[in-house]
Amino acid sequence: MAPEDERAACVPAPEGGEPLNQRPWAKNFIGLEQAQQYNRGTFETGSKAGQPVTIAVIDSGVAGAREDVFGSRLLGGYDAWDASSKGKCDSAQNGHGTAVAAIAAGGPIGTAGTIDFIGVAPEANILPIRVFTGGDNEGGDSSKSKVVAQAINDAVAHDADVINVSSVMVETQELADAVANAIANGVVVVGATGNDTKHMDDESIEADKQTFYPANYPEVIAVGAHNKDGNWYNGTNFGNNIDLLAPGVELAYPYAGGDWASNSGTSFAAPFVAGAAALLKGQYGAEATPAWIQKRLQETAIHPPNEFNIYQGHGILNVGAALTAPVVQSEITSDTVSQEPTGEPSTVPIAEEDREAIVGLDPDYDPLRLEKAIAWASVGASIVLVTLVLVLKKIVPKGRRRGWRPGTRKTDIVPAKAATE
Question: What's the pTM?
């Protein structure tokens, strides 16, 4: 708990959401409907078969009042300032923690029989851990780093399967140890890279300004953001440890105080990946290792043209492919799965004007498009050839029986026309 003189009852985010004035775009972009035909956040196999996957949300709390979003899946969690709230109170003015939890595991919400919103893993449980209030004065100093480290350890101790951290802070030994503890216990850790456009490998950045952890640890799945067109969100912190981009610009989500809100940033991209990790855990069992899940999401992403770059990582999250592409069974429970290869490390900050040339990634891009086109063309040609053979098979015998003579008609059947006609 926080020092006694700092404790106070959690004041929830104010009422005042807005009507939903847009159809959420991210669902179709990441192939969510396809993925949810296979899993929705419940373990299908392994030691926890039949149980919900648990996603710990280390944030500003999650609004328990939004039962329409979470139902009974919001577990009793932890609040560093108000033990009685059990994390079920979101104190951030923008409903930050509630938004993150809803994107990761919110249930379907719709009107007139339509589903306007659904989280990535709508059957998963949410373990809310409130470690910051959402105020503007909360930085990423070593105190915050140590508090988040305690929260990660707490989530592991209370059976979380996936942990989402949509905030950034400096590195501390406590934070590094907590992440290592989570990975050793088979818990996937997902982190937002942050929104300061920092090069996370730039050694010239002062230590107290290196606020891009825990995302910058190699074993954490580091998530940047992209917009509706697949273009890189230019606030994203970038570097050699970035893994994926996920939707993070102009996102509509359930607001903690009721109705809806919208926002942009890597905070809201990370829970898409946390939800995807929960679906993979559910589909392949609690024993699926963090190393395998990280690689699985990397290799099934919509890749940049050169497979990896320090802005887009391995590409855009494709949760549909992650759930449906062929699997090497022996790798699922392996701790020694190597990550997809990356480029050579670079500590040189990239000029701002160069970022404008970052190629947007097409969600419909298919690296085998040419090969498939050739294959289909071959099939088409084969069909034409077979049809031609069948036709000739009927025509040739008839021609031979007639001695290949042209057809004739009697001239007196057709009356001759007068010149005046």
Answer: 0.83
Residues 6+ apart with CB under 8 A from 175: 145, 146, 148, 149, 152, 169, 213, 214
From the list 96, 199, 226, 314, the catalytic residue is: 96
Closest to 121 measured CA to CA, from 61, 28, 224, 43: 43
The CA–CA distances, whole Å, from 310 to 243, 305, 349, 351, 376 equal 9, 13, 11, 13, 36
Of 199, 267, 303, 314, which is the active-site residue? 267
Nearest partner of 47 among 333, 297, 291, 330, judged by Cα = 333
Residue pair 20/68 in contact (Cβ under 8 Å)? The answer is: no
Annotated catalytic, 199? no
Instruction: State how far the Cα of 43 lies from the Cα of 289, in Å rounded to an integer.
Output: 14
Q: Going residue by residue through the chain (421 aa), what tens digit of pLDDT does each one get?
A: 888 998 999 999 999 899 887 778 998 899 999 999 999 999 999 999 999 999 999 999 999 999 999 999 999 999 999 999 999 999 999 999 999 999 999 999 876 667 789 999 999 999 999 998 875 446 799 999 999 999 999 999 999 999 999 999 999 999 999 999 999 999 999 999 999 999 999 989 999 999 999 999 999 999 999 999 999 999 999 999 999 999 999 999 999 999 999 999 999 999 999 999 999 999 999 999 999 999 999 999 999 887 899 999 999 999 999 999 999 999 999 988 776 555 554 444 445 555 554 556 654 444 434 444 555 566 566 676 766 767 666 666 666 666 655 555 555 444 555 555 5
Question: Which token pair is 104?
Answer: 């990761």
CA–CA dist 57, 274 (Å, integer): 9
Instruction: Give the sign of the dihedral formed by CA 289, CA 245, CA 264, CA 32.
Output: negative
**Catalytic residue list contains 84:** no
CA–CA distances in Å: residue 137 to residues 62, 133, 141, 144, 177: 20, 10, 11, 12, 26
Q: Is 59 a catalytic residue?
A: yes
Backbone phi, psi, residue 102, to 5°: -65, -40
- Catalytic residue chosen out of the listed positions 59, 79, 154, 201: 59
What is the distance between the alpha carbons of residues 132 and 121, in angstroms, rounded to a whole number?
25
Question: End-to-end distance of the chain based on CA atoms, in angstroms?
Answer: 109
What residue has token string 């022996």? 330
The pair of three-digit structure tokens given for residue 182, joined into one six-digit string: 């989570």
Cross-strand partners of 313:
309
Angle at 188 between CA 70 and CA 288, to 5 degrees: 105
